[in-house]
Each structure stands twice: as C-alpha cells, then as structure tokens.
C-alpha cells in the first residue's frame, strides 16, 4: 500500500531521526545528489525536504550555501555519545535521560551500539571526536579498561563504579538500597529470605548479594544464595527460568518464605519456575527484586522492586558539570543517596509481596 504522506515529508522525517541519532556527527550532511540517488526521487522532492528542516532550525546554510547542522555562533557543538549493547532498547530510561539532557543543552547526540566488548566500534568511539561518552559495558577490564583510563577525562561509566580510579560514574540508586527490599520482606513475616541471581558481570551481582547477607544478619534472618554465571548469548530470564527449575528439583527455595532476586530478569524466570512447580506467590513464598519497575509491573504477579527516582535532575547536574556551567571540581560520582528518600518513594509495591505488614492478605 502506497503511503499518503508526501515523499518529501517522509525524507525529512528520516533525516530528522538521523540527526537526532547523531548519524552526521562525524561526516558532512549529505548533499542533494546523494539523497536523490539514495531515495530514488527527483531533486525538487529533496529540496522540499531540506526546506522543512531549515524551517525547523535543524539545518542552516553555511559557507557556499552548503547545508550544515547548527552549532551555535562562534562555537563548535559539544558532541555526546551514548554507548551500550543492543540489549538497551530505544525507550531505555538511561538512554532517554542522556538524550533529553543533550537536547536541553544543545549538544549533538549519537547512539553507538555494540555486540560484545571486543567490538572495534568501542575503541573507535573512544578515539573519536566526542566530548563526552556515556559507556555501559558492565565492569570493564583488560585492554578496554586501559583504553578507558586513557580517555577518562571524557568518559562516564554507567552502573560500574570505578571512581576510585578517577573515572566518572553515573548510576541511580546504589546497591546499598537492596537492604530496603530485604527489610520489606522481613516486615511481611519472611524469616528465611533466599537470594537468586544469574550473573553476567560477577562484581555487579556480588555487591547486591553482600548487602543481602549483611541485612539478614542485622535482622536475625537466614537465607541461602543461589548464584550462577550466565551465558551472554541467551536471554537472561530464559536462563533464570531453567536454572531456577533445576534448583527447585534439588529442593532449593522449599524452606524459604521470601526470595530477593538481583534483578527483574532473575525474578521473572523464578516466578515462572514457581508457577510450573505449583508454588503460589505470594501465598507460599514472596518475591522481590531490584530495578526496572516498568518491566516489573507487567508480570503476573507484578514484582515488588526498588525503583530509580527520575533521572532528569541528575543528568542535568552531570551535563552542567562537563559543560562548565556549574562545574564541581573533584566530583566523580553522579548517583542518588537512597537515604534521602522515603521507602514509599523507592519501593514499588507489587503483587509478589503482601501489601500490608504482617503477612495477612
């Protein structure tokens, strides 16, 4: 079926998305002849598309009437890249927060996607003409870590705190907030609270397990940890389901009245394994997790989780620091202190735990 939208409008929309994704950050904006050949249209159609972009201020006429992206009078635009695996969807709240902050401060923005941490695109991006690079690669090591150390004046790591090495760090709520979830379960009459995790970066999940273990001791509760290294080539919730089912066949979780999962994918797989085994949640066992409230709310039962406060204010602080608007010398960590929030602000109550304290539905 032919589209009723004029071709010049379709071309303009494609170019807008390319500009928003930073496709032309490291190359000149394409001229008319190139776009005529690319889209199979005549030059008049391309000129109409250009006029739409000029009218919206997405392009300006530079030297020799050549179309260029506006960078502001007398200055080179600040170039920002967000680098993550393909697992990060376009609606990811971290990606959205960085992209919106880049727009707010009139920075050029580019999203870079990689498959593995061996990809050349990671090293090329670090060597590229970027002023600020948000990098989501787990906990880097080896040659990649060496490269990040060399470029640390323009790199911000997401979720991996290496601020002790002078590398800036951007995160939401730290792992210390796991204590809130463990206490949440304990207040609902859980005395044996197990821990379940399918790990891909051990340091990340070990930190959450350590908080779980410490909090159990403080509450005089008990629990067992079930942690397995995952396969990066398989969806983690699928792995979690298979591994949890295997643990259940061996008698795991049978004496527990609560389980804290390291993340929502682990909780999703565990809930499916419980359902397959005829174990009712929360009637027989309660389940809670960390992060991804948007995803946690979609399951049946919905999962009780720690959620991250709105990221826009924190992203703004970070941009203003690097842009020199309100620099904060010596600051390397940009994350929330969970102690400044109430439990109601941080815990999203799902159907996987009792809504009131005392364990009575």
UniProtKB/TrEMBL annotation:
Residues 182-310 form the Transcriptional regulator LacI/GalR-like sensor domain. InterPro entries: LacI/GalR-like_sensor, Peripla_BP_I, Tscrpt_reg_HTH_GntR, WH-like_DNA-bd_sf, WH_DNA-bd_sf. Residues 8-61 form the HTH gntR-type domain. GO terms for molecular function: DNA-binding transcription factor activity; transcription cis-regulatory region binding. Keywords: DNA-binding, Transcription, Transcription regulation. Transmembrane segments: none annotated. PANTHER family: HTH-TYPE TRANSCRIPTIONAL REGULATOR GALS, LACI-RELATED TRANSCRIPTIONAL REPRESSOR. This is Regulatory GntR family protein.
């Amino acid at each position: 079926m032919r589209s009723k939208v004029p071709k010049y409008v379709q071309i303009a929309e494609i170019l807008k998305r390319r500009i928003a994704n930073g496709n032309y950050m490291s190359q000149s904006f394409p001229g008319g002849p190139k776009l005529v050949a690319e889209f199979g249209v005549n030059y008049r159609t391309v000129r109409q598309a250009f006029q739409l972009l000029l009218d919206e201020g997405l392009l300006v006429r530079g030297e020799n009437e050549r179309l260029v992206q506006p960078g502001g009078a007398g200055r080179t635009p600040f170039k920002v890249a967000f680098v993550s695996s393909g697992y990060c969807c376009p609606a990811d709240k971290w990606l959205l927060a960085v992209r919106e902050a880049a727009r707010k401060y009139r920075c050029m923005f580019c999203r870079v996607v990689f498959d593995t941490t061996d990809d050349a695109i990671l090293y090329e991006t670090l060597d590229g003409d970027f002023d600020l690079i948000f990098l989501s690669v787990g906990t880097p090591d080896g040659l990649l870590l060496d490269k990040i150390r060399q470029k640390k004046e323009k790199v911000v790591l997401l979720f991996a705190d290496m601020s002790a090495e002078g590398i800036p760090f951007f995160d939401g709520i730290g792992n210390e907030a796991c204590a809130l979830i463990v206490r949440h379960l304990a207040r609902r009459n859980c005395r044996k609270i197990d821990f379940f995790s399918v790990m891909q970066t051990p340091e990340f999940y070990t930190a959450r397990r350590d908080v779980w273990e410490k909090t159990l001791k403080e509450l005089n509760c008990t629990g067992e940890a079930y942690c397995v290294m995952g396969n990066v080539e398989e969806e983690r919730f699928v792995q979690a389901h298979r591994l949890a089912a295997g643990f259940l066949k061996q008698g795991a979780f049978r004496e527990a009245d609560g389980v804290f999962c390291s993340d929502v994918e682990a909780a999703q797989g565990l809930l499916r394994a419980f359902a397959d085994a005829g174990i009712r949640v929360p009637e027989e066992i309660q389940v809670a997790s960390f992060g991804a409230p948007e995803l946690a709310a979609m399951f049946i039962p919905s999962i009780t989780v720690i959620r991250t406060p709105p990221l826009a204010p924190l992203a703004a602080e970070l941009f203003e620091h690097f842009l020199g608007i309100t620099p904060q010398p010596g600051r390397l960590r940009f994350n929330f202190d969970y102690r400044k929030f109430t439990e109601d602000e941080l815990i999203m109550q799902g159907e996987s735990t009792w809504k009131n304290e005392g364990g009575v539905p």
